[in-house]
């Protein structure tokens, strides 16, 4: 498996996971239910992504895996994690206000904040991919 | 990046290598070479040394500080 294929699989998997988590959070907010679909979906999607990325990296040569996670990619992922941290901090403020104003329930906040916090780094990585950085 | 002079593209073209060939030679992605050449990404010392070795030159010949930087 070439580095290009491996990169495509990794980027697609990460993007899909980010979109699934974002979709779950939006569904929570739109429907007003903490479980708009089975609550196992976000966790299962995360675990499946981890399995796919790990297995495909194992199937490739060490050099291809190294190129896939080269210096630029690691720097981009680090930036995505930093961005994700600040998203999480702001979510506390945002949903705290929502709870205070009785716009969301604690159950909704828990489900939406958890999945949005998980989605943020992957969506930032997706943005970097669209910008041609990874 | 303001303050950094980067002549990687010149050295690479002088060596007759494409971005993909240089990337393959030092074990990084073509995008990494592209972003370094365009001053979007500043490489680590290790990567800079690998680039210099592959292009048979010194890091100082590829990267330099602008006057006053």
Whole-angstrom Rg of chain B? 11 Å
Terminal CA distance of chain B: 11 Å
Average pLDDT number of chain B: 93
Q: Main beta sheet of chain B: strand number and arrangement?
A: 2 strands, antiparallel
- C-alpha-based Rg of chain A, rounded: 17 Å
| Helical segment count of chain A | 5
How many DSSP E strands of chain B? 2
Range of helix content of chain A: over 70%
What is the share of helical residues of chain B?
40-55%
Widest sheet, order of strands of chain B: 1-2
Indicate the proportion of strand residues of chain A.
under 5%
Oligomer: heterodimer
A few lines on this structure:
Chain A has 134 residues and is mainly α.
SSE blueprint and pairings:
The complex is a heterodimer of chains A (134) and B (69).
Chain A (H helix, E strand, L loop, with lengths): L2 H29 L8 H20 L2 H7 L2 H30 L5 H25 L4
Helix pairs in contact in A: 1-2, 1-3, 1-5, 4-5
Chain B lengths: L3 E3 L1 H7 L4 H8 L3 H8 L7 H10 L4 H4 E3 L4
Antiparallel strand pairs in B: 1-2
Helix pairs in contact in B: 2-3
Can you describe what's shown?
The complex is a heterodimer of chains A (134) and B (69). By secondary structure, chain A is an all-alpha fold. Chain A contains five helices and no strands. The longest helix of chain A has 30 residues. Chain A starts with a helix and ends with a helix. Chain B is mostly helical and 69 residues long. Chain B has five helices and two strands; from the N terminus they run βαααααβ. Chain B has a two-stranded antiparallel ribbon with strand order 1-2. The mean pLDDT of chain B is 93.
């Amino acid at each position: 498996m070439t580095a290009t294929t491996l990169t495509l699989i990794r980027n697609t998997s990460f993007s899909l996971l980010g979109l699934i988590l974002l979709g779950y959070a939006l569904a929570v907010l739109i429907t007003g239910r903490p479980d708009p679909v089975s609550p196992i979906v976000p966790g299962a999607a995360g675990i499946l992504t981890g399995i796919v990325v790990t297995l495909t990296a194992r199937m490739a040569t060490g050099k291809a895996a190294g190129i896939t996670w080269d210096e630029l990619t690691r720097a981009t992922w680090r930036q995505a994690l930093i961005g994700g941290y600040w998203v999480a901090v702001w979510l506390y403020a945002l949903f705290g206000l929502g709870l205070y104003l009785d716009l969301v329930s604690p159950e909704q906040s828990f489900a939406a904040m958890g999945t949005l916090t998980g989605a943020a780094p992957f969506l930032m990585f997706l943005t970097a991919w669209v910008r041609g950085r990874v | 990046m303001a303050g950094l002079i980067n002549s990687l593209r010149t050295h690479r073209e002088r060596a007759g290598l494409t971005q993909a060939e240089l990337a393959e030679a030092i074990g990084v992605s073509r995008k990494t070479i592209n972003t370094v050449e365009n001053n979007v990404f500043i490489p680590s010392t290790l990567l800079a040394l690998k680039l210099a070795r592959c292009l048979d030159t010194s890091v100082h010949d590829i990267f330099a500080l602008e006057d006053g930087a």
